[in-house]
Design a protein that fits this description.
The complex is a heterodimer of chains A (361) and B (319). Chain A is an alpha+beta fold. Chain A has 10 helices and 20 strands. In chain A, helix 4 packs across helix 5. Chain B folds into 3 domains: 32 residues; 37 residues, no CATH class; 202 residues, MetI-like (MetI-like fold, Orthogonal Bundle). Classes of the chains: A alpha+beta (361), B mainly alpha (319).
């Protein structure tokens, strides 16, 4: 078990800045998800904790100890990757034994066997133990590679998009499984993904990474409901938060250049929104609803049926707006509808910086 | 879809097979010529048209391994009866085996030269492939200042026709006393092959995902252990392919061996033709020497054939 801290980490590769002044604090036993797009610096961060990469600047602490001069072996972390995570030519059993066999560990053969068998039982891969790794399916491979991490009882688990290469069904199943494993082990997990659903469903805490910086850290609830800026708002959630330019006039949101108005909560003014200040209004699709007497008219541009719900794309002038509505809502494309939003759920962002007024204050 | 072969396709297939057979025969003809000549009686070796059907003999090989001299008079029946079977074959050819004063059979130079060839080729191959593998790994995995320039420099050692440096090398070798030594040739051939080996192995190393070793590093192994346990088995195909090429180059090398060696460390390639001029040129003996000389490369290549096939098509290695 371990508490991990990254302090002011920067990393450059030649002219490319991968990380710039990154700070992270992962509590002992926490399932921490690092969420970001490809190239945001997630993997670099992970490799730095693993000791496979050295920071250009800054420090990495494991349990309060600066590990700058520790090699990967000494850090006692386990790494699960998206691919290439199993040793080819080895059987599943040999793969599971491999982390237990280095000279620095000195584990008795009996103990190795016991541990491998226990892990195989946990992950339900006992029937695969004697199989070569190239005879495994994608899901089985990832199960084995998770097993290879667990078998060693490391201080920290590092996972680099372990589920991304799997098909949707399997990904869902393994997501639950992985979360259960983490809860049973009570270990610190640092999980990297570009998939916001994974982040939201698995993480105790989520850190959103953009261009080598942590934009926001918080529980999935905080990240979803109170995004720090427009980047987080548009990255998290599927479909993402609607972002509409406008300004505040008499406690009403006036959308420019579309000129439609919607009410705002009474408290909006107290968090620094003054009349006329250019703002971006953020509203989640599920907080946009259709109502016959609602203030704004729009046309249905597109309908996506997701079974439990429908995602409508509404067109107001040139602007598009997403709304999640119950599946029984009966609409057709190009049909005129009226909509409103839940004023309490509106997030106000500064137009210039993109930062939420709640966070700026 | 079920494979439907039309009659045109079938006849095209047959045509292709015939074509392949013809090409194969063209390629194999010289080898057949050498092999057949190695087993021919001497008087059939140079007949025109060539003799195809004949009673194979072992006598060229006996002659190849022994020192002989011309008989002035035919051996007496007692001499003939006392001689072992292989010596009679020499008598039949109008020659006799040279023996020392104490009656020991004098060997020809061939077995020694053959051994020299083996020593030099194997050692230089092991050195070139070994060093090449390590160097390639370094270039492939670590950031090295001036990496491209260094790689180009290594390659540039190949840009000169080797014979150009033969005389300077000869003079240098004479000064340092490497002339006519095994090590002299081994160093030379290793240097030849090293650039090739580095470049070829770099290609193979680049193909091996570095994630494998990193996983081993994280699992608690040292870089060295990870290299030997994970990288080396993965690189086996590349090593095999490189080794075959290096071995063939070293085994076949003629010019430097001719210049740098004369007795002690002489390899088979300069030795075999040197036998042409001594006395009557007996083509069957030369063919026998050449035939034996072909075997090691053939065996080596045959043993590594699976690796070679995959090695030739690298880039298409299954990950």
């Amino acid at each position: 078990m371990a508490h991990i801290q990254l302090k002011n980490i920067s990393k450059t590769f030649g002219n490319h800045i991968a990380l710039a002044g990154l700070n992270l604090d992962i509590a002992d036993g926490e399932f921490f998800v690092l969420l970001g797009e490809t190239g945001a610096g997630k993997t670099t961060t992970l490799r730095m904790v693993a000791g496979l990469e050295k920071p250009t600047e800054g420090q990495v602490f494991i349990d309060g100890v600066d590990v700058a001069n520790w090699g990967a072996a000494e850090r006692d972390v386990a790494l699960v990757l998206q691919q290439y995570s199993l040793y080819p030519r080895y059987t599943v059993r040999e793969n599971l034994e491999f982390p237990l066999k280095p000279k620095i560990r000195r584990i008795e053969p009996d103990e190795i066997k016991t541990r491998v068998d226990r892990v195989a039982r946990t992950l339900r891969i006992e029937h695969l133990l004697d199989r070569k790794t190239d005879r495994l399916s994608g899901g089985e491979m990832q199960r084995v590679s998770i097993g290879r991490a667990i078998v060693r009882k490391p201080r920290v688990f590092l996972m680099d998009e372990p589920l991304s290469a799997l098909d949707a069904k399997l990904r869902e199943a393994l997501r639950t499984e992985l979360k259960n494993i983490q809860m049973n082990l009570g270990q610190t997990f640092l999980f990297v993904t570009h998939d916001q659903i994974e982040a939201m469903s698995m993480g105790d805490k989520v850190g959103v990474l953009n261009h080598g910086r942590i934009v926001q850290t918080g529980t999935p609830y905080e990240i979803y409901n109170n995004p720090r800026d427009t980047y987080v708002a548009s990255f998290v959630g599927s479909p993402p938060m609607n972002l509409i330019d406008g300004k505040l006039v008499d406690n009403r949101a006036v959308m420019a250049p579309l000129n439609f108005e919607l009410p705002l909560p009474v408290g909006a003014r107290t968090i620094g929104a003054t009349d006329g200040r250019p703002l971006v209004f953020g509203i989640r699709p599920e907080d946009v609803y259709l109502e016959s007497g609602a203030p704004v008219e729009a046309r249905v541009h597109d309908v996506e049926n997701h079974g439990v719900e429908k995602i409508l794309t509404l067109r107001v002038g040139d602007a598009m707006l997403r709304a999640t509505v119950p599946a029984r809502t009966d609409v057709e494309i190009e049909q005129p509808v009226r909509f409103a939003w839940n004023p309490d759920k509106v997030v106000l962002f500064d137009k210039g910086s993109g930062v939420s007024l709640r966070h700026a204050g | 879809m079920a494979a439907v072969t039309t009659s045109t396709e079938r006849s095209l297939n047959k045509l292709a097979i015939v074509g392949v057979l013809i090409v194969t025969m063209i390629f194999l003809a010289p080898i057949y010529w050498i092999a057949s000549t190695a087993f021919k009686p001497r008087n059939l070796a140079t007949t025109i048209p060539p003799t195809v059907l004949f009673q194979p003999e072992i006598s060229p090989f006996v002659k190849l391994f022994t020192k002989r001299s011309q008989l002035r008079t035919a051996p007496t029946p007692e001499q003939y009866a006392a001689a072992p079977w292989w010596e009679r074959l020499v008598f039949d050819g109008g020659e006799k085996v040279v023996r020392s004063g104490r009656g020991e059979v004098q060997w020809s130079g061939y077995p020694n030269r053959f051994m020299n060839s083996l020593i030099v080729a194997i050692t230089s191959t092991v050195l070139a492939v070994g060093m090449g593998t390590f160097t390639a790994y370094g270039f492939s995995r670590f950031k090295i200042k001036g990496e491209q320039d260094l790689l180009f420099f290594i390659l540039s050692t190949r840009m000169l026709p080797p014979v150009v440096v033969a005389i300077p090398m000869f003079l240098m070798y004479r000064v340092v006393g490497l002339n006519d030594t095994h090590w002299g040739l081994i160093i030379l051939y290793t240097a030849f092959n090293l650039s090739f080996s580095v470049w070829l192995m770099k290609g193979f190393m680049d193909e091996i995902p570095k994630e494998y070793e990193e996983a081993a590093l994280v699992d608690g192994y040292t870089r060295m252990e990870a290299f030997f346990k994970i990288v080396l088995p993965e690189a086996a195909t590349g090593i095999a392919a490189t080794a075959v090429f290096c071995f063939i180059t070293a085994w076949n090398e003629y010019a430097f061996a001719l210049i740098m060696t004369n007795r002690r460390a002489q390899t088979a390639p300069p030795f075999i033709p040197s036998q042409v001029g001594s006395g009557l040129s007996d083509w069957t003996v030369i063919a026998a020497g050449t035939f034996l000389f072909l075997l090691p490369v053939a065996i080596f290549t045959f043993l590594l054939r699976n690796h070679l096939l995959r090695g030739m098509s690298f880039g298409a290695i299954r990950k």
